[in-house]
Amino acid sequence: MNKRELLRIFYHLTVIGAGFTTLALEIIASRMLMPQFGLTLDIWGAVLVVTLSVLAAGYFWGEKTVSGSLAEKIPGKYVRNAFCAVVLVFAGVLGFYPLTGMFTDLPLFIGAALSSFILIGPCFFFTATLTPLLVMIETLSQGQEKTKAIGHTGIILAESTIGSVIGALVCVYGLIPNMSVEIALIYLLAPLFVSSSVLVVLHSRFMGLKIRGIQLLAIMLAGTVFFSGLDVDARQINFGNTIATQLEVQRTRYGTIRLIRVPLPAEQTAWLYLLLDGRTQNILLEKGENAIAYTNAAVNSLLNMPKKPKDVLILGGGAGVIARDLANSGVSVDMVEINGAFEPLAKKYFYLPDMVNFYVEDARTFLNRCSKTYDAIVFDIFTGYGAPEHLVTKEAYQAAKECLNPGGVVSLNLLRDPKDTKPDATIKATLSAVFSYVDLYSPIKAETPIVNGLWLASDETLPVAQLSGGATPGFINEELKQNWKYQPVSDGGEVSTDNFPAYVFETKELFREEHSLTRDIYGVSVMKP
Q1: What gap in Å lies between CA 183 and CA 364, rounded to an integer?
Q2: How far apart are CA 195 and CA 207, in angstroms?
Q3: Are 91 and 126 in contact (CB under 8 A)?
Q4: Is there a contact between 127 and 25 (Cβ–Cβ < 8 Å)?
Q5: How many CA atoms lie within 13 A of 307 on its CB side?
Q6: What is the enclosing helix (H) or strand (E) of 315?
Q7: Alpha helices (H) in 356-494, listed in sequence order
Q8: Strand-strand pairing, 269-276 and 279-285
Q9: How far apart are CA 199 and CA 190, in angstroms?
Q10: Which of 187, 175, 199, 166 lies closest to 16 in space, CA to CA?
Q11: What percent of the chain has a predicted confidence (pLDDT) above 70?
């Protein structure tokens, strides 16, 4: 094999490596944005807009570079741009968390788009320039015939696309379930890093191209990130003035689950925080008491119904605190959770009894083919701070109704901003399109701008919900009695459907304490044991 053929092989391997990185980086970007901005729809919109805009700019600039350069300069520009793409991802990783904090108060889409650009924008720009540059390299090597140029374009685009398919599969099924997103990102860069590094060496050797300062800087920067010890699995974490302990880390296709123990020395107990990508899913006192107002309200509202439900379906629920309390009160409970990794944690730390039937499935598909009926169905499902849009539509609630016994109740847990009435009006209109009676209960005073909302819907008259009582701790009983009240909701909202998902919940003011905890967990204030 001569020198030219060897170079040609690595030109094409670099295009494949760039494709391998690109689509998978979009997935990684959405996962890194989730703890900061929440809603999947807004994040994916931002990531796709940034990706396609930057790729278009890169293709355009690559063509301009080709038309404005001498033929002998094009291979060197190709090598430089391939290596720059790798460098800029490393730079994006280092700058992502510090800079993203500046954007969390902006409108959701704009903040997510800016953060997405920091992480992937410059990299994608340079990977996009590789296609027109390589087309010209191939065309010049085999003559200037137009038909050959077109043929090379198709082959190169096919190589890049195949690389993207492989990268997406490796990312979803190999990397994300087994490591942090930051480390997965570094692994995704490996093919492009290796092929572009080899090209630097080959060009230096075969064509007299000297390794420039930017390439040496890139190698140093890459090494810094590889060996910086991003200790996202540290056992001890700064939690305000307390040193918390990370008990468990489970990386799954649906996010990274972390179980954090926060000691309360004065009370000789501790909080157990269950987090998914930095967002709280469940909190429980270590001795077993459920001290969260919403989950107590959800349980008590059902147990205090004139006709106590015998069979309840829980959709979502994370560690299953609601399912546990209902089951311990004599209710038969089926729990449907898309992430099966929650079950062993729920049984080990959150006292989920074996009598709860745990199903691993998407809630909507379970509703579409449910084989039994229930007296109540509880929706407790979140994507970030919002709900998956296919579970807040008329069709979803109609599917739930068909799984209910006559007079059955649907219970929803949705976060709400009391100052923003539009999402509440949309939920009321959507539930009212299926059920005759709809009520909302929520705190009238809160320390945070965002509060839980407990929705109840039925075809039979709903009694005034009793939200306190049972085994609820005394201070939570008082909170429910004094602060959780019926909330009137205005009519006239849009009905959310599968074809027109009108429900959008934006969190312009985010929970600062959760962001602080997220930053600690993801390496800013993490303490090594």
Answers
A1: 32
A2: 17
A3: no
A4: no
A5: 14
A6: strand 311-316
A7: 363-368, 394-401, 422-432, 474-483
A8: antiparallel
A9: 14
A10: 166
A11: 81
> Token pair for residue 238?
């700064």
Instruction: Quote the distance between the C-alpha of residue 110 and its chain's center.
Output: 17
Q: What are phi and psi of 382, to 5 degrees?
A: -135, 150
Task: Retrieve residue 36's tokens.
Answer: 């900061």
Nearest to 408 by CA among 453, 382, 360, 370: 370
At 332, list the tokens.
């038969």
- Please give the backbone phi and psi of residue 26, each rounded to the nearest 5 degrees, phi first: -60, -45
Dist. CA 61–CA 69, nearest whole Å: 12
Tokens of 282: 């469940």
User: What's the half-sphere exposure (Cβ side, CA atoms, 13 Å) at 468?
Assistant: 13
For residue 144, the one-letter residue type is: Q
CA dist., res. 150 & res. 523, Å (int):
48
Which helix H or strand E contains 184, and what residues bound it? helix 181-206
Taking only Cα atoms into account, the Rg of the chain, rounded to an integer number of angstroms, comes to 27
pLDDT per position as a tens digit, 310-351? 999 999 988 899 999 999 999 999 999 999 999 999 999 999
Q: For residues 361 and 336, what is the distance between their CA atoms, to the nearest angstrom?
A: 6
pLDDT one-digit tens code per residue, 393-448? 999 999 999 999 999 999 999 988 888 889 999 999 999 999 999 999 999 987 77
Q: In what order do the strands lie in the sheet with 242-252?
A: 279-285, 269-276, 255-264, 242-252, 236-239, 526-527
- The reported pTM is 0.72
Specify burial of residue 261 (Cβ count, 10 A radius: 0-12, 13-18, 19+): middle
Distance (Å, whole) CA 160 – CA 250: 32
